[in-house]
Write a structure and sequence with these properties.
Helices cover 34% and strands 27% of the residues. It has a five-stranded mixed beta sheet. It starts with a strand and ends with a helix. It contains four helices and five strands; from the N terminus they run E-H-E-H-E-H-E-E-H. The chain is an alpha/beta fold. The chain has a single domain (3-104), classed as Glutaredoxin, CATH 3.40.30.10.
């Protein structure tokens, strides 16, 4: 299951993680965000021992969205050692998200 992050806990959860982190930037009103939500949940379950998968609602966390220049959603950022190392903008198949995560493990 994915963890929710926001402006108050993002740095602690994401940037200080010792595992690779996938951050799904989304909003309730976003149709493509709802389309990829099951894939994000599946990745969270499948990789729970080796990676952290979190969701960040841009409506309730505008500071983080601005900080990472999130202009379109869904945007999925991939972090390793506190740095953005890859990204996926827009809806995609689960395999596309997994292909970006696998080299980070």
């Amino acid at each position: 299951m994915t963890q929710q992050v926001d402006d108050s806990n993002f740095d602690e959860v994401v940037l200080k993680s010792d595992k690779p982190v996938i951050v799904d930037f989304w909003a309730e009103w976003c149709g493509p965000c709802r389309m990829i939500a099951p894939y994000i949940e599946q990745l969270a379950d499948a990789y729970r021992e080796r990676a952290l998968v979190v969701k960040c609602d841009i409506e309730s966390s505008p500071g983080i969205a601005r900080r990472f220049t999130i202009r379109n959603i869904p945007t999925v950022l991939y972090f390793k050692n506190g740095e953005v190392v890859d990204k996926q903008v827009g809806a995609a198949a689960r395999s596309a998200f997994e292909a970006k995560l696998t080299p980070l493990l």
